[in-house]
Amino acid sequence: MREELVVVFHGGHVTSLVRSDAHSSSTYGGPLEHKTSGQSLQRPVHHVAHLSVAQLPFLGAPRYVVDLPLVYGLYYEASNIKYTFGHGSISIESLLPNRPLDGWPYEGYPSMLPYVPLEVGEVSEASWSIFLSRAPNLPEEQPSEVVILVPPPATLGFSMWGEAGDAEGVTLVFECSLESKRVVAYNVCG
What we know:
Layout: E1 4-10, E2 13-19, E3 26-28, E4 35-38, E5 46-52, E6 67-72, E7 80-86, E8 89-96, E9 116-125, H1 128-131, E10 146-150, H2 162-167, E11 171-177, E12 182-188
Parallel strand pairs: 4-8
Antiparallel strand pairs: 1-2, 1-10, 2-9, 3-5, 3-9, 5-6, 7-8, 7-12, 10-11, 11-12
């Protein structure tokens, strides 16, 4: 089984996204091509993933979502970020804490995550209570229309959190409201 790099929960279904051997409209990492505005940041946010309606049709009509950019403040310890997105733009409403830590999450952390094309791996039915087992400390009630998990990767040639954090399975969580085009992101660990 190929490594799940991004896991999407929506409408009672779990969709895993895995590494593709071909170019794809959905990607992990790489450059952030969206224009960012809103809260002023001392260090840029990382582009974690880009999900495309071409591969995940439930993102689209009637909401007119073409793509879903997932960004996170990896230089900011235990950050919580809130942002809205539009076609080619991201407006950061808040990022807390708002000061990056020197050497966080470790010295020499990459300024850009590895670029990896993604494809749909497996799609399965699941309730929110079953999906909860995929990451520790998720809310008991489904917090938004779409919830996306990005666990620390084992096969991309970098460590997301450093040895200890990766071993603990620290996972990024993106709560996405497609109607308002708003994302709240944070991390959870066991």
